Amino acid sequence: QSLPQQKLLTWLSVLECVEVFAEMGTARVWGEMGRWTIIVLIQLAKAILRLLLLLWYKAGIQMSPPIVPLNREQQQPLHPQDMENTSSGKDQTYVGKRSSRVVRSLQSTPSLQSRHWGSPQQREESQSRRAEEMNQPPTPLGLQETFAESLYITRPLLHLLSLGVWGQRSWKPWLLSAVLDISSLSLLSDLKDLNRRERAELRRRTILLLYYLLRSPFYDRYSEGRILLLLRLLADYVPGVGFVTRPLMDYLPAWQKIYFYNWG
């Protein structure tokens, strides 16, 4: 990736990290008008950055999160003791004569800070596989797939526009957003030879369609009573589950009021 593309991904990641805090903080200081203003500005900025990545840098299907979190356990550097063992050419493994089991030799045991519990071969294979996945180029998108990804990117803006036109209690914004999400997934489902990360992203988007059961006005009219009844039954009749379901019942109303938790 080029440096400008990395900067766009960084800014996109920052926006996704602070969007909920920005919405809640702005609502606290400037009220509802300020809250909706910051929501529109953040969604507009995210859409512009994603469209630049899609159309200018040909980044393909957009991942979430934009930057893969660093796995610190896999990225730990070698300590001086480990480097001495490696450079001295000592055998790192021992193969049992009868069991043929591969174990780490005592001479090449790494320091406690960088120790792992798998065999060296397993770690090397895992690191090489992860590096290969990270270095895979995005799948080229045709006109249909680019249009589908553009639908997914602009869906938040169209949803906000429909909220401003028809109001928050109307079914039209809910239906418009659902149609755009389903249409985007349907058009992208024709793509073949996707890499592993892209397939995982499409699965994530498909699972997120369940959020429509928790979004107003569907939640207010149909889902709320049934979900709360189910959580209450689990809390009352399944031992130990109440520690999770009772706080969840208290949290759901607050979760419903935060746009970026619900629609972002």
UniProtKB/TrEMBL annotation:
Family statement: Belongs to the peroxin-16 family.
Localization: Peroxisome membrane
Major localisation: membrane
Keyword flag Nucleotide-binding: no
Bias type Basic and acidic residues, positions: 122-133
Name of the featured protein: Peroxisomal membrane protein PEX16
Cellular compartments per GO CC: peroxisomal membrane
Species this protein is from: Sakesphorus luctuosus
Chain intervals for the UniProt region annotation (Disordered): 74-140
Gene, per the UniProt record: Pex16
